[in-house]
Amino acid sequence: MSEQLKVALAAIVGEENVSDRQVDRLCYSRDCGPDPAGIPAAVVRPASTDEVAAIVQWANEHGHTVFTRGRGTTFLGSGVREGVVLIDMTRMNRIFRIDVDAGYVDVEGGAIWHGVDADLRRLGWELAVPGGGGLFSCTIGGTVAVNAIPHGATEYGMTGDHVLSLEVVTGAGEILRTGSAANPNSEPIERGANGPDLAGLFIGSYGVLGIITRVVYRIRRVPESELYRFYAFDDYRCSIDAAAGIQGRGAATFIVGMYGGPKPAGEEGDGFLHLIVRDRSGTAAVRMREAEAICESHRGRPCSAHGTQHYWEEHMYSWLRNTPPGPYYSDRPFFCPEVAGFVSTQGLKAAVDLFRTMKKEREEEFAKFGIRVKGLDAYYSRNGAYLWIDTLYDERRDDAWAYGMQLRSELAERMFTDGRMSPGGLGAGIAPHIMPKLGTARDAFSALKKTFDPKGVLNPGLLIDDKGMNR
Amino acid sequence: MNLEQYKSQIYSCLRCGFCFDHEEGSQQKICPPYNTYGLESYGARGKVLIARAVLDGVIEYGPDVADCIYACTECDACVEQCFKYLDLTAIYRAMKQDLADRDLLPSELTAVNDALEAEGNPYRRPRDKRLSWAPGTERVGKSADVLLFVGCTPAYLRRGIAQGAYRILDAAGVDFGLLADEECCGHPYLAFGLLDQARAVARRNVERIVSAGAETVLFSCPGCLRTFREEIPHLLGEPLPFEVLHVSEACEQMPELARLRWGKSSRVATYHDPCNLGRGLGIYEPPRELIRSVPSARLTEMPRTRDRSYCCGNGGFTRFPHESMAIENETDRFAEAVQTGADLLITSCPACDTAFLDARRRAQADIEVLDLVEWLAQLV
Fold this sequence. Notes:
The complex is a heterodimer of chains A (about 475) and B (about 375). Chain A is α+β, with helices and mostly antiparallel strands and about 475 residues long. Chain A has helices at about 5-15, 20-25, 50-60, 115-120, 140-145, 155, 200, 235-250, 280-295, 305-315, 325-330, 345-360, 365-370, 400-415, 425-435, 440-450; strands at about 20, 40-45, 65-70, 85-90, 95-100, 105-110, 125, 165-170, 175, 210-220, 225-235, 255-260, 270-280, 300-305, 335, 340-345, 370-380, 385-395. Chain B has 3 domains: about 1-100, Fumarate Reductase Iron-sulfur Protein, Chain B, domain 2 (Orthogonal Bundle), CATH 1.10.1060.10; about 120-255, Rossmann fold (3-Layer(aba) Sandwich), CATH 3.40.50; about 260-380, 3-Layer(aba) Sandwich (Rossmann fold), CATH 3.40.50.11810. Chain B is built from 19 helices and 8 strands. In chain B, the strands form 2 sheets. A 4-stranded parallel sheet of chain B has the order 2-1-3-4, with helices on both faces. Chain B has a 4-stranded parallel sheet with strand order 6-5-7-8, with helices on both faces. In chain B, strand 7, helix 18 and strand 8 (about 370) form a beta-alpha-beta unit. In chain B, helix 3 crosses helix 6, helix 11 crosses helix 12 and helix 17 (about 325-340) crosses helix 18.
């Protein structure tokens, strides 16, 4: 990075908040996923929306590109390009307002999910979806930008469903507010106000249209009661039918289905359902009784829900398999080239079958490259399921990594066609496999990119390539 | 490279970022250098990525790597939070060894190393003044079952701690001695990555203690205690031929000390868990039990306590190369203590004690700062 550029950035954010040291830059190239990425030319740490806007304006004026990063906790590849100016959002972590009357929290985009949630819990409230998509160390702005699949999706829906308002710095460096907050005389209480749902354009857009600098998000009073159940089924199809029944009755807050990977310790079966119900005490009991009856009518066997409770309270996936985090996670140099997506509840049966067939066809290759199947787990949504196909490769082996990436490609292509799945999270790793299939929706996305980021300054190459064409 | 032995762990890091923040809210950081500098290279995830980049040949050891790695206070908060249960401090120490092997020790720490070599303490204080705090000479070089290992900071900078420990043992009627030629426990060498020097000084101290006939060695400094309990057996390849106890543990386990009754004190105290004593050795309750055993005294906890305690910012001898970082973090932690409303901040570590005294002076706060043994010695 030239001294001139460093001086220009320092003029915006202060000298101590710009670094071009290699040791600092390389730490921003990787996220939780297996995708290699470029090393940025510099890291800048703005403290305000105005500073973010100034950086983007500077990039527009001087022909540079920027890449935005929250906590870098995506598994799907944030796709940092070599030589970009990386904007680290974590200094922008203020909580402006907690309004329990209006039911929202107003935070900067870099606020940390579980930090904000902990502050709310002291008041008896919580963010409207738990877990921030699983890795609760994420930023709120980042989680909204990728529209993460949260815990509790069966009742609470997607992360983006609870956004009331966004403040965004567009690729042109303009500051835009959405919903009722777009009117400076109003309050950020309604996303549907003032015309089209502009917030929806930025939710799940991975920051390619604009940088989310402020989020107004729904909060809820922490429910009085949480109940847990765990069922095993000898035929996984029965568990899917049971889940469909529970969805239809709105009986559970969260249903997690398990159809592959290691079986929960101490249990036998072909499919499993973890059930969580959160509500007022009496109502929760009624809802759980209904869910129990549905499971038992589909030949589900009740098992100990000890792991279910730990999973929900600690957000540790190991507990889905009745295993404490220590023995499950320690000394495992494995990474997950995950493929995941939405499918209808009944369509889940075919998707599970498809993966099981693909796995069987590749048994020799899996053995050769040491590939494991961590899980074939489904987070049931309101009317479907989000199926995670989690394979693992040994990060120390170059050949295993290469095979893992090839496997991800093959799985994505098959699951997004024959498996009828549509991914929620895209990222650099998944976008190339879905974007070409989206037809006019893809074209509309490209047009939006040109509108909000005419010079292609933001997150170059991510979701949409540099020429404005989807790759 | 020493780092090679941790390759599997380094490649196991999920990069989940659990090592950045406490879950207790307010988005408080768990890592002092990350809290101060804000760049990932100073946090655990970044340091493991640097380690990986070194192994992969993406970056070479150099002054910038040394700057990040030697900013670590070795507080183990990242270890406590690690999703993958990685031995992160061991990875940092392996990097420190590699850096030291390449003459990349920061100049401030080289000066400390020189002081250790010259005078046997990191402060370049005269070796022959090490016991000048002692009320008399009758216990110096005395052969006894119990030995009080004083440590450099109590011996030179926080003499009230050395005197307090001495007074408590004396009042309890413990027959104890002091080494005439005690020198640094080796903790700084370990924090600098100088294992040969640490091994040499450990051997000399162990031989002195064995010669003194001690079966039990007591410590007021948790850094010294952890070095003896965890590091020296590993360095020397054999178990210690004597027992080592923190004074607070001894007050529970040694009958003479357990019989002591403290005078009344109506202080409202808050307790700061030193990293080496708490997360390092798992000693959380004995100091608290001692505070609770003082008639009329009341213990009030800070929000971040026990395994979630926040480092004072001075561990790992970071004050030498990163003074402003140490000051910022000791100020933050001191403010947490003040917010409890306590009139007394107690810790069990001379380094934390020194840091909080500095913070108190700067803040001109009313809350008093004392090491546990200093306070108890007042109540004997």
